[in-house]
Structure formats: structure tokens, C-alpha cells
Design a protein that fits this description.
The chain has 16 helices and seven strands. The protein is an alpha/beta fold.
């Protein structure tokens, strides 16, 4: 069971892309901290160490965390705690949790950590960046770095001109948010963003990595996914390149082979991580029509509670 949980955790598209392009992520989102780091020395992801301090991680919340050891330009090691808040709604105790993790790292390992957060929600007013309390004889003010992806909506030209892979990541994220309940528009943007990878001259490995992220977040209804693959297959043939369609076929083709039920489960796990066995069993009882309806509905799910409500409403008791 532990291995299954670990595998599901590794499936997070944000964690995967962060591991693949960590220096670029730091340079894109937190350039001042990136300037402190000697990138000639290898960085190290401290997953086991983070698991020791994150023992009470909330079930059902959507976020990705990475504890990373890097080297300061002056020689000493630095620990970075990178938090990516994917949850669509603001969290009241978010700043407190950031402080708690920072304190636990220091308490458990004797290492001060630079705490950084990437906020992916669509609430432009939610901008937590500190946790504090103040009493007559004791006071605390803990501040942490934040980046709000929402703000990049007004910097689209800058994103288009950037050769940093995280410009593509942010573009895919924003267009996913903006095309909620607009599947045809989402299909158009998904094709455009993937085509852009080829036009920018990315290497095959980079195209595959960034394609995986785009495909993971920009989920399409089944019929549009079929159209997308046909159009993209033709595009690759015209360019005499087959980096994706004859390689991994990560999207619709694999889902079609595994069946509608498996496709729905995979899509849900992309959003919420490994599903509890009780939910898997409930999904297995759905008819084909119900599965297709769930496949459409999950495009607008933002939390696992949305799935529970849908099942309560639509599943025969």
C-alpha cells in the first residue's frame, strides 16, 4: 500500500515538472532566491525528509510540496521548501501551515528553510505571505515568498516570448482555468500550446515533458479528445516529427484501450491523487452512460468533495 501511495504521489503533474526543470522553476518564479544558488552543484530532492515533517498532511487537499537541498554561492547548503497550492479555493490556515512546516524542518533537522509558495487558485484577492502573533512579551512575524499565477494573465506577451519551460506551464494552467465549461475553446488552446513547443524548437525530451503537463491539466471530453488526436497526428505527419503520437500516446489512445472506467479513474487521480478504495468501488458500479457523464462532469471538479456530491446525486442507491 505504501508503494501505491508513493506512486500516486509521484503522478502529480506539478511535482513531475518541478523535478524535471527545478533550476528553471526557481529562475522563473523566484529569481532573487535563484541568484543565491550555485547551480554548478547538483540539487537534491529530500522527499524522505519532507515526509517526516509532513505527517499530518490533509487528505483531499490539492497541493504539491518539495523540500530541496541546494548550495549557496558562498559554499554552505540551503534547504528550500517549495509549496504549490493547487486547491481552487483559499485556505484559511494556509499561512499557519507554511510556518508550521518551516518550524518542523528546523526542529527536526536543525536547518532553516527558505519557504516559497506558488498559488494556483483563481481568487485574485487571496495573497497569504506571512504568519504572525503579538503578545506583550512575545511576538512573531514569519514571512514567506509567494507567486500568484493569476497575475500572469496580464503578462501573456511576456509568457509567449519566454524560453523558460515554466512559461508554458503557466500558460497551460491559466487557459485551463479560463476554459472551464468551454471545452471547444480548451481544445483549441491545448493544440496551440503543444504546437508552440515544436515551433520554439524544443528538444524531443522537453516536448514530451511539457506535453505531459499540458495533457494532464487540459482534460477534454472524449469526443473532443478524439478530434484533438486526429488533428495532432496530422500536424506531426506534416512536420515529419512523431515525438508524441507514435511514442507514448499518453492521452486518449491509452485511455480508450483501458476502457471508459479506467479513463475516468485516471482523470480523477490526476486531479486528486490516489482514490480511496471505497470511491473506486462506487465508480465500478456505474453504467457506461453514467461513466461518460462523470467524465464530462469532472472537468469542473475542483475538490474531491465535488466527486462525492456527484456520486450521491447520480448513483443508483
Amino acid at each position: 500500500m505504501t508503494e501505491e501511495r508513493e506512486r500516486a504521489d509521484q503522478d502529480s503533474p506539478w511535482k513531475e515538472i518541478l523535478e524535471a526543470y527545478f533550476p528553471q522553476a526557481m529562475q522563473f518564479f523566484f529569481p532573487r532566491t535563484a541568484a543565491l544558488i550555485n547551480w554548478e552543484y547538483p540539487h537534491e530532492f529530500l522527499d524522505k525528509e519532507f515526509q517526516q515533517i509532513a505527517r499530518d498532511a490533509e487528505q483531499g487537499r490539492r497541493y504539491a510540496d518539495k523540500l530541496v537541498k541546494v548550495w549557496h554561492i558562498q559554499g554552505e547548503e540551503i534547504w528550500l521548501l517549495i509549496h504549490i497550492e493547487i486547491q481552487a479555493t483559499p485556505e484559511a490556515n494556509f499561512a499557519e501551515r507554511m510556518f508550521s512546516y518551516n518550524l518542523r524542518i528546523f526542529d527536526r533537522f536543525g536547518k532553516p528553510a527558505i519557504s516559497l509558495a506558488i498559488l494556483c487558485d483563481a481568487d485574485s484577492t487571496w495573497r497569504p505571505n506571512q504568519y504572525s502573533y503579538n503578545y506583550p512579551d512575545t511576538r512573531l512575524n514569519f514571512e514567506f515568498g509567494t507567486v500568484k499565477l493569476w497575475d500572469y494573465q496580464t503578462r501573456w506577451t511576456e509568457l509567449e516570448a519566454s524560453d523558460n519551460p515554466f512559461a508554458t506551464v503557466v500558460m497551460a494552467h491559466l487557459k485551463t482555468q479560463q476554459t472551464t465549461k468551454k471545452p471547444q475553446e480548451r481544445k483549441t488552446w491545448k493544440f496551440s500550446l503543444i504546437r508552440r513547443l515544436y515551433e520554439q524548437g524544443w528538444q524531443e525530451k522537453d516536448i514530451r515533458n511539457l506535453y505531459r503537463f499540458i495533457d494532464w491539466v487540459m482534460i477534454l471530453p472524449k469526443a473532443l479528445e478524439v478530434e484533438f488526436w486526429e488533428e495532432f497526428k496530422q500536424f506531426e505527419q506534416e512536420r515529419t516529427m512523431s515525438y508524441i503520437t507514435t511514442g507514448e500516446r499518453i492521452g486518449y489512445e491509452r485511455g480508450r484501450e483501458e476502457g471508459e472506467q479506467t479513463l475516468v479513474v485516471r482523470q480523477l487521480q490526476k486531479r486528486f491523487g490516489n482514490l480511496p478504495e471505497s470511491l473506486r468501488l462506487r465508480i465500478q458500479t456505474l453504467s457506461l452512460n453514467q461513466l461518460e457523464e462523470l467524465g464530462e462532469a469532472l472537468l469542473d471538479f475542483t475538490a474531491i468533495e465535488d466527486l462525492l456530491r456527484w456520486l450521491d446525486t447520480n448513483q443508483a442507491q
